Amino acid sequence: MIRRDYLIVGAGAGGISACEGIREHDKKGTIMLVGNEIAMPYQRPLLFGSLLRGKSGNNHTAEKICVHDGTWFQKHHIDLRLDTFVTQFNIERRLAVLGNGQAVEFRKALLATGSRARRPQIAGANLGNIFYLRSLRDVQALREIAETEHQIVIAGGGFIALETASFLAQLPKAQVTLMHRAPLWLRTLGPEGSAWLGEYLTSHGIKLMIGETLNGFEGRTVLRNVQTKSGQRFTAGLAIVALGAEPNLALVQNTPLAYPHGTPVNDYLETDEKGIYAVGDIAAYPDKILGGVRRIEHWEAAVLQGHVAGANMTGKKRIKFEYLPHASSVIFDLHFDFLGDFSKPPTRIELEGDLAKKKFIVRAYQLSTLMGVALCNQPAEKIEAAKTQLREWPRGKKSEAI
C-alpha cells in the first residue's frame, strides 16, 4: 500500500498548478501526480504554434513547451507517475488503484482529468489519417502526415479548427477545406464580423463549406473521401475533426462527483465530498462575476483553479476562486482575445473599430447587460479595460467606449 497526503489525478495545467499551490504552503506533505501521457507535462495551448509551425521531428520544440522538467519534480519531492492511469477511485475509503495494480491511500485528492475530443458517430470515424487533436503525440503525428497529404479537410468552427486551418494552410502545396454547420464565430463577432472572418480565411487560401456537416469518411484503412449530409463527396487524404470536447468523468461515474456536464464544486473548488477537489475542464464552479454555474475548457482557468485548489487542500489557506473567462486565439496575423460569456446568442452586438484594418472590438449583450467582449489585435491596456468594464457592468447601463 502506497500512502500519500495528496493524490492529484491528471498532469495537465490544473494538476501541475495544484502541485505548485500545495508546495507554497506545505513543503513536507507527500504528493503523487498521475498522468496518462508519456511526455512530461506540457503547455497545451502552444502545441499548434510551436509544433505545427516547427520542422518535423524537432524534439527540441517539444521540450520547450514543457511546464517543468524532471528536475523540478525531484526538487519539490513530487512522485510523478507518467503513462499511468487511475483505474479505480474509492471516495469512502480514500483509495485509488493505478493501472499497474498498485493501491494508493490518500488524505486529500484533486481531480484534474481534463476532457477528450468529441467523436462523431459516423461511418469511417476511426480510419487512419483522421485526427482528433488533444495531445502532443496527436500534433506531432499530424505534422508528419501533413507534409505528404496535401488535401486536408477540417470539420469544426472553434478555436482549434481555425487555428489548425491557419497553420496548415501555410504549408507548401496544402489545400485546406474548412467545413462548419453555421457561420464562423457568429456569437463572438456578430453577423458582420463573422462574414468578414470568412472572407479573410478565403483570401488566405482556405476553402469554406459553411452550412455543411459530416456524414461519413471513406477508405479501406486510411482516409480517401469525405461525405457530407447534403450529398457531396470529395477526395481528402487528411482530416481533422474539431467538434468540441467532453469532460473525462469515467473515473467517478456513478458517484456524486459525476454530473452530465461536469463535477460540481463550491467557491473553494471542493466537491460535496470533503477533501476531494476538482479543477480544469471537469469542474463546474459558481461564477460570482457573470452569474450561474460555469465549466471552462481554457488553459488559463485551469492554471488559476489548480493554484487555488492546491492552496486550499493544505488547510493553511482558504481562497475563493473568482475568474473572468479569458481565451485567446491566433489565426494568421490576427490575435483575438475573448472575455466573458458567449455561451448564448447575444441579443445585441456592438462593433467598434475597423474590420478592414484588422483592429476592432465587439461587445455582446443579453438585453441591456454586457456579457462578452471580443478584441482583435488590441493592446494589453484595452484588454484590461474590457475586463474592468465586464466586472463592473451594472444592469441597464448603456455601453461606454473602451
From TrEMBL:
One of its GO terms (cellular component) is cytoplasm. Coiled coil: none annotated. Keywords: FAD, Flavoprotein, Oxidoreductase. Transmembrane segments: none annotated. Pfam families: Pyr_redox_2. InterPro entries: FAD-oxidoreductase/Apoptosis, FAD/NAD-bd_sf, FAD/NAD-binding_dom. It comes from the Bacteria. Residues 5-306 form the FAD/NAD(P)-binding domain. This is FAD-dependent pyridine nucleotide-disulphide oxidoreductase.
